[in-house]
Design a protein that fits this description.
4-stranded mixed sheet, ATP hydrolysis activity, single chain, globular, 15 helices, 7-stranded mixed sheet, 462 residues, 13 strands, alpha/beta, Rossmann fold, 3 domains, 40% helix
Length: 462
């Protein structure tokens, strides 16, 4: 028996582009299959044995078990990632998995069907052309959601604390208040989120993947989703008094998209400090008054969007001190996104190395999970003589991850293998050689030290 008010376990069911079956039928068949075949499911993992059901195999492309709204665990009665006839497949996610008993949760199946190709359209708001005849920079781009280009990004992002859960809960809360017809004049919210922190920490990726996740999770309410990315720099015109009009024309097009209540729209304003810093400069007399008009117009348009329950505004900033107080006051959530912690660094580097192994540049080695290495480290390690190659390399990567934390951004970490190869492997090995993983890890360690010295020189020069 399921509990009456059971915690929710999210299940995402992606359909093939060719499927024409109704979502409610897919939802019912998949629910019946999971109930019949499993006593427990593993969160943040993929299941595969639905392919044994002919109708599901013909229509479904992927089934992903998401998060559970509470912490429940149990021992599975069998392999949770596939049937007895399918090989074990390790979850490709940075998130901790846990076994959840199905009789203690309510399955929330989210069925969605992304198009076979990701469609991105751009539009401009300026009536003027540059002197050389070229058109102005597009004011915004629009991506139809769900998009295959963003599939799986959400699960590769890891932060200190439950940042992603906090964002999802915020959206669910605004939906609840809107559906309950809470008087907006008494209890108010702005549907604006501000992510701030140093460059390269995944703020923009988090915004895009959240938009993708919402398009999936809200598929029973909205037929589709849209991600509108606004180019902040395009909102300033060289034509006097034109900038405020650009903002109005831009948001007129945004409003047209929001007017379609069958679609959930996420508006992303990257590097929003370029707008708010200009407003501060205009008020102090350091910038032209036109800069003040553009930001005032932007704030006015954001105020108009806050009553639209099918719209969310996401913003990012690398310079916290440059963000204007009037904008900060409009953000319901102000979330700092810092440099990746050691566990995230380990997962990022591990995913990079696994990809290089897949490409055949390194002989394959099964690296351990970070938490298992934490336990091993606390007991004194395995010992260089007794450890096998998998454990030795995992311990080297564990040490490297702790060396990198609080110093390198995710963007820098993902280019580390290329730099390591160029500086320390290409000069020592023939192009056809496949150095072992330990050699790569040593090269990456040296590269991290070199990058640290370069950063010290740059900071010293500044």
């Amino acid at each position: 028996m399921r509990l009456t008010h059971a915690p929710a376990l999210a299940v995402e069911v992606r359909l093939k582009p060719t499927s024409t079956m109704r979502y409610d039928l897919i939802r019912r068949l998949m629910s019946q299959h999971l109930d019949a075949e499993y006593e427990t499911l593993l969160t943040h993992s993929e299941v595969h044995d639905w392919r044994d059901v002919a109708v599901l195999a013909q229509n479904v492309d992927r089934v992903w078990i998401g998060e559970c709204s509470t912490s429940l665990s149990s021992s599975p009665r069998r392999d949770l990632l596939g049937s007895l006839t399918h090989p074990y497949r390790r979850p490709r996610t940075a998130l901790a998995t846990s076994a959840v008993p199905l009789d203690a949760v309510s399955l929330h199946l989210h069925v969605y069907q992304p198009p076979s190709s990701s469609r991105v359209t751009e539009f401009s708001t300026s009536p003027h052309n540059d002197d050389d005849g070229d058109s102005d920079v597009p004011a915004a781009s629009v991506l139809e959601l769900p998009s295959l280009s963003l599939e799986g990004v959400w699960d590769t992002l890891i932060y200190d604390g439950d940042v992603k859960g906090k964002l999802l809960n915020y959206i669910y809360s605004t939906m609840l208040f809107s559906d309950a017809l809470v008087d907006f004049n008494i209890v108010t919210w702005n549907r604006v989120v501000l992510l701030h922190g140093p460059p390269g920490t995944g703020k923009t990726s988090l915004c895009r993947s959240l938009a993708q996740k919402l398009a999936i999770r809200l598929s029973d309410r909205y037929a589709s989703g849209k991600l509108i990315e606004i180019n902040s720099h395009s909102l300033f015109s060289k034509w006097f008094s034109e900038s405020g009009k650009l903002v109005q024309r831009l948001f007129a097009q945004v409003t047209d998209m929001v007017d379609d209540e069958s679609s959930f729209v996420v508006v992303l304003i990257d590097e929003v400090e370029s707008l708010t810093a200009a407003r501060a400069g205009a008020m102090s007399g350091k910038e032209p008054s036109d800069a003040l008009r553009v930001v005032n117009a932007l704030l006015t348009q954001l105020d108009k969007l806050k009553t639209r329950k099918n719209c969310l505004v996401m913003t990012t900033s690398n310079l916290t001190g440059a963000i204007d107080n009037a904008f900060i006051d409009r953000a319901d959530i102000k979330q700092y996104i810092g440099l990746p912690p050691a566990a995230a660094v380990y997962w990022i580097l591990k995913s990079c190395l696994n990809e290089i192994m897949r490409a055949g540049l390194i002989p394959p080695v099964a690296l351990h999970e970070y938490k298992a290495l934490e336990v091993l480290e606390s007991t004194g390690g395995a010992g260089a003589q007794d450890a096998d190659e998998e454990t030795r390399c995992s311990e080297l990567l564990f040490s490297l991850a702790n060396q990198c934390q609080q110093g390198l951004s995710g963007r820098t970490l993902r280019r580390l293998p290329v730099l390591a190869h160029a500086r320390h492997i290409a000069v020592s090995f023939a192009s056809s050689a496949r150095p072992r993983l330990a050699t790569w890890l040593e090269a990456m360690r040296k590269t991290v030290e070199e990058e640290g010295r370069e950063m010290d020189r740059v900071e010293g020069a500044v």
